[in-house]
Amino acid sequence: MNIALVVLDTLRKDAFDDQFEWLPGRRFERAWATSNWTAPVHAALFTGRYASEVGVHSKANELDCEEPTLAEQLSAAGYTTRAFSANPNVSKRFEFHRGFEEFTGSWKIRQFNTDREVFDWSGFVNDTKGEGPTRYLTALRRCVTEDVDTLASLKQGFDLKFRPDRLGADVPDDGAQASLERIRETEYGDDEFLFLNLMEAHGPYEPPEEYRTVDHEKPSAADALLGEVDVDRDAVRQAYEDSVRYLSDVYREIFAELRAEFDYVITLSDHGELLGEHGHWDHQYGLYPELTHVPLVVWGDDLEGSTDATVSLLDVHRTVLDLADVDGDSRGRNLLSDPGRECLTEYHGLTRWLLDEFEAGDDVETVRKRYDAELAGVALPPSYYGYETEDGWTEHGTADADPRDRFETLRDSLDRRDVEPSRQELSEEALEQLEDLGYA
What we know:
- This protein is an alpha/beta fold.
- It has helices spanning 13-19, 38-47, 51-54, 70-76, 121-127, 135-145, 150-162, 176-185, 221-226, 233-261, 289-292, 314-323, 352-359, 364-371, 403-412, 428-436; strands spanning 3-8, 26-32, 80-85, 102-105, 192-198, 264-268, 274-275, 281-282, 293-294, 296-299, 306-312, 343-347, 375-380, 384-389, 392-396.
- Helices cover 35% and strands 17% of the residues.
- Strands 1, 2, 3, 4, 5, 6, 9, 10 and 11 form a nine-stranded mixed β-sheet that branches. A four-stranded antiparallel β-sheet has the order 12-13-14-15, covered by helices on one side.
- Helix 2 packs parallel to helix 12, helix 6 packs antiparallel against helix 7 and helix 8 (176-185) packs parallel to helix 10.
């Protein structure tokens, strides 16, 4: 059995409905993410537990829990496990490679896919302009003597000199084309598990030139939280839609390759995006339905049509295990045989990198008080979603059971893992990459 799991990062449900009508398979119209951003959602996908149960959140986003990951379970059962990620948060640096025999990524995660720091070539080149070719001898010495991954640093320097496309200088996109090329080059056997994370819908919303219809200035995460945003909302939204249109086109090619090699292809988004709704942007804050109501499609074995059953991304974990005939604990249910459930959503506060930015100013206490408190929400059959905000409880739809009672019961059932905030240091280049993506 060959199974592919594809995350179309930051793809809103409404944008998916507009641009992905071509995607075949069974559509789950009421699928809910477990959180508002990448790290906790992927932790849930990979463990079958809520992020708070495995200790992955905005202050500690390393997947260092005792629970086995999905890839580890499949690998132990004899599966060949491969991954391609374009998201720095889903990288070796944060231990999301656990269980994958092959874990590669796009240029976006070059600083995050090694156990040690890679020499900061971009900074070095900028600092030594005009010094002539001899500066590269200095760089070579520093790659050997400094506390960096020497081989990875030398390779990156070679790529920068002779293959700048590998570092993002002239790449066509955020990694989708590179993943397509890799899929085409790979010879797949039996019992394969492939995971992809594609970032074409993620900020800063810069698709290939031929897809751009507007010029836009995307607000930074910090300015958005402080309310200091003066942008053309329509232009930003159009830029996002341009990015999704490109993602749809390139994923059509990727999906065609996958369906030729895999028995099942599961396509989903880890979370949505705010484009000015509720006074917010990006996906740094809150559990609004624009963030937590996500697309989910399972293709294979004559699966078609759609269902309004309330399901969670946790259910993907159980479904993959069952398709692979692998035993394992999971909070999820099999999407193909037992759909419909009560789903929690979790917000764990602002990322530590974003708070570090506020620490330099006078607004940190205001921001902490308003935006850094934990929140939760609940989705219930047949159509209910309720969630906490800084202003109180908000709800939509109807439920078969008492929503607040079910919410409290589910939240109390969590076996939370308390972890210390991460102290992991990142290079300036890595932090700049996170800032470009809105996480810092």
